[in-house]
Fold each of these.
Amino acid sequence: MIKVGDTLPATTLYEYSDVEGEGCSIGPNAVDVAKASAGKTIALFALPGAFTPTCSAKHVPGYVEQYDALRAAGVDEIWCLSVNDAFVMGAWARAQKSVGKVRLLADGSADFAKAAGLTLDLTAKGMGVRSNRYSMLVKDGKVATLNVEGPGKFEVSDAATLLAQAKG
């Protein structure tokens, strides 16, 4: 499993945007993790799936609500990763009203989750291999803090915990 001090996995995530900008097409657009995290402080959190109960009711809304506080604490970007495709993540971003605050990034084949050693096998529930629920503060591509949830829990990967770590 990835740990504090490690570099983020050199993988590609995908993002769907409803609005063209900064020379990007609407999508899906490739996001090279190494390039996108270089020189930035990122509040990164991951969850098992878009449109799922805890993820939609608590996890993403908490980061949307804490956007200004996280920015004030030195966070440049907030990333949400899930093992879904970019089109689903784009639709979820609209539903969560997270556009412009939280980047919902697709790890469609679980490449990032596998490389980080943070997978969750939900095959028995018909969901296949997903990402575990966790959060991390990333500085210049390296893990500064890591908060991994226990099975079925939502106690340490929330926005308030990561905000306290960003301030600390």
Amino acid sequence: MNIIRLEPDEGGTVAWPTLSTSRKSVVTVGVFDGVHRGHQAVIGRTVELARAQDCFAVVIMFDPRPAFVHTYAKTHAGIAVPEGLHDAQALTGADERLRMMDELGVDYVLIVHYDLAFAAKSYRFFLGQLVGKLGMRTLVLGADARMGANREGDIAHIDRLAQATGMFELDVVDDNGGMTRVPATYSPTAPQHAGEPVDPLAAMNKAQRRAWSKRTNAREVRELSSTNIRWLLSQGRIGDANRILGHMHGVEGTVVHGEERGRTIGFPTANVEEPIDGYLPVDGVYAGWLIDLGGDEAYEQSQRPFGDEQDGGVESISQPYTSGGVESRLAAHSPYRWPAAISIGTKPTFNEQTGRDERVLEAYAITDGWLELYGHRVRVEFARFLRPQIKFDSAQELVDELTRNADETLTIVGE
């Protein structure tokens, strides 16, 4: 797989590369946040058609997320997102998305820096560029895809354009996931009881569901959608989110020194530094996994940062993708993967003593050996919600509960 990063000019025009003068492309377009089962179906279809037609399988991926860009502009007098501002609502970082696309067999990922000028281009102009520059033969999209200025380019409009011009074909993938309802606005809400929470709508009749939808101003979305996954994670429904993702939800970041209080009570934890790549579920204690991705500097170098000069001092447009061996560390039986009891929250048992209320992510790896992970990049994966954050009356009560959480974690990940 090859990576090309593209920056629109001031007018929003992208200098699309010529991938080949003789070989066409099958293209799909989107953010692919989470690379959930719906995304996997679309990318898989893109690869399937490309192989059948002897074309390149091309993914055009937007980064940052369009929703992040437009929301920021709406709340900041129409200005662009400042460089380096962290998107805490993104389900996955770019590194994770690229790893999964490589596994799915994509030939090229074109990462377009999404900005307001680019967003103002019409879908007709955008698709014309893809045909003319990338040699797009087939465009593969999900059934709810929209693109272009004011999101006017829905499936119906794109299909009419394809048939009228005859320049490309449109292939629409139905994920067969159905629809669901999600509140228009909501706040992360931790379950009040131990154990994985259930769908609150499951026990409601039609009248009760209508009342809930009206009360929460709920809107209909596809079940297999990043919006739905974000909602589920914000309510602690890890199992439901993972089912839609088709893999365990995870976040990634660098381990730093914390208060080291866990070490004094026999539960040393890996404290992950902000900003964290990936969406943090609601506060609580979770069963899951801790994976060591290697030293932070070595990890960054292994990802082949864009802009590195190649032979002769010339910057390469297309760079071969490499994960630096991260896949082997993520593998199911990797020696760098450990069951972990994971805590997200403000440490209610000790925050009165410390005066610190910041939200932190900690993972206690259940292993006999001592782990020295300071300065390492790690991935924390969530398997199930265990319990809400609780303030204990003593350190011993906390130790007893953490012991139970560790035992529960081993049972859950063993399943």
